[in-house]
Design a protein that fits this description.
Length: about 180
């Protein structure tokens, strides 16, 4: 029985695991990760939601606004659990605080970081900036989710999450025709 369960778990993990190394293009170049990152710092203004959706607890998050516990809004509190990430200030990146956490990946897809900030962060740990195809603050939610999912080794899960949410949106539009042409 134990061999059967172990075999099933091995099959599931191998089917759902993303192979490393991976390479992702972004606004300031290329990110290559040799191994699956486990020590994540989120400097994007909403990237922590994506990180948490994959069951990964960030070491630090960048506060945006709203005075939420640990910078996490109610919809993601369940995923955070009793984990207590460091909350970074919203306007200025604290490079010393980030470096002290010894991350193996800094996620800044929605951070609107400058090239100078990127270079400083990337000197601390491999850093994922926004995709180059998008101007600041214009990355669609599903692109952000897939990009972060790939970097964390959860590409298949990200694709599934996107498909599920898009279907929910279609269902809501169908159920509520009064929403047509509303934003």
């Amino acid at each position: 029985m134990k061999k059967w369960i172990l075999g099933l778990l091995t099959l599931w993990f191998s089917a759902n695991a993303m192979a490393f190394p991976i390479t992702l293009e972004h606004k300031y170049g290329t990110l290559t990760l040799q191994n699956k990152p486990t020590r994540i710092v989120s400097v994007g203004y909403s990237d922590q939601d994506d990180v948490l959706s994959f069951g990964v607890k960030p070491l630090a998050v960048r506060d945006w606004y709203g005075n939420q516990p640990y910078g996490i809004w109610p919809w993601a509190q369940v995923q955070l659990g009793d984990h207590k990430p460091v909350v970074l200030k919203p306007r200025i990146l604290d490079y010393e605080a980030i470096a002290a956490l010894k991350p193996d990946l800094i996620v800044g897809v929605s951070s609107v970081m400058s090239e100078k900030e990127y270079k400083k962060l990337n000197a601390i740990a491999p850093t994922l900036a926004q995709p180059k195809e998008y101007a600041d603050y214009t990355i669609p939610w599903y692109v952000r989710h897939l990009t972060i999912g790939k970097a964390l080794g959860f590409e298949q899960q990200a694709e599934k999450n996107i498909k599920t949410l898009k279907q929910k949106l279609i269902d809501i539009k169908t159920t509520h025709p009064e929403f047509k042409n509303k934003t």
